[in-house]
Amino acid sequence: MIKAIFFDLDNTLIDRTAAAYDIYCDIVSDCLPDLKKGSFEYEAAVQKLMIWDEYGTIEKAHVFNRFCKEFHLDMNLVESLSARWADEFGNYARVFAESENTLKNLGTRYRLGLLTNGYPKMQREKLKRSGLEKYFEVVIVSGEHGIHKPDVRIFELACQKMGLNPEEIAFVGDTFSADILGAMRCGMLPIWIHSDHLLNTQLKIMRIQRIEELTELL
Ligand SMILES: [Mg+2]
């Protein structure tokens, strides 16, 4: 019997894709001033960054390395752009329209927790800006513990902090290799949320496309 639900943050409760698009637009404007904002060339540069970013799973140094090579920019920019990302990305956070209602609703029936991978300062800033912090009894940011999803130890820490066994916890996240794999290793019930229904899997796992679908699923 499920007693608690743990959530991932990025692209689960907050629209990381929209935030990434916004910051990459600002970066293209600053680094490639010859490309006119709103032109197809400008948009193509932003869309390249979005693809290299792979939903945030690729280290920023790699993304900006590729960017600087592709657009013949000073390679010293790689470091400063990576630092800019770490400093500023938290400020771009946008919450999905139905996240708050869903948490409010589920919070009447389940205990709620958050388990996110990333830098403490950035993830805490995103959470603060989302206005969702008050719904969580337990918040774990991987960077504060030096272990990251899918490492089973961070999921075990989540169980321990909630005072429940893994079978009593559902885990909702969008990144299969971090969220779903880790939850399965720990023995939680994994629920894969992904807006792209074309992503295929042979596994019989619970799937949703939008956060509000959880209310009926659980
Ligand atoms: Mg995520």
Q: What would your notes on this structure say?
A:
It is a single chain. By secondary structure, the chain is an alpha/beta fold. It contains nine helices and six strands. It has two domains: 136 residues, Rossmann fold (3-Layer(aba) Sandwich), CATH 3.40.50.1000; 77 residues, no CATH class. Helix 6 links the parallel strand 2 and strand 3. Helix 1 crosses helix 2 and helix 3 crosses helix 4. The model has no long low-confidence stretch (mean pLDDT 96). The site of magnesium ion has 7 residues, from loops.
CATH homologous superfamily designation of the largest domain: HAD superfamily/HAD-like
Strand content: 5-15%
Gap from first CA to last CA: 11 Å
Counting structural domains, the number is: 2
H/I helix tally = 9
Structural class: alpha/beta
Are any ligands bound, and if so which?
magnesium ion
The count of β-strands is: 6
Q: Architecture of the largest domain, CATH level 2?
A: 3-Layer(aba) Sandwich
Oligomeric state of this protein: single chain
Widest sheet: strand ordering:
3-2-1-4-5-6
Mean pLDDT level? 96
Could you tell me the radius of gyration in angstroms? 18 Å
| CATH class type of the largest domain | Alpha Beta
Keywords:
218 residues; alpha/beta; Rossmann fold; 2 domains; six-stranded parallel sheet; 9 helices; elongated; binds magnesium ion
Helices and strands in order, then pairings?
Layout lengths: L3 E4 L8 H16 L8 H14 L6 H11 L6 H12 L10 H8 L4 E6 L3 H11 L7 E4 L10 H11 L6 E5 L2 H11 L2 E5 L12 E3 L5 H4 L1
Parallel strand pairs: 1-2, 1-4, 2-3, 4-5, 5-6
The protein binds magnesium ion.
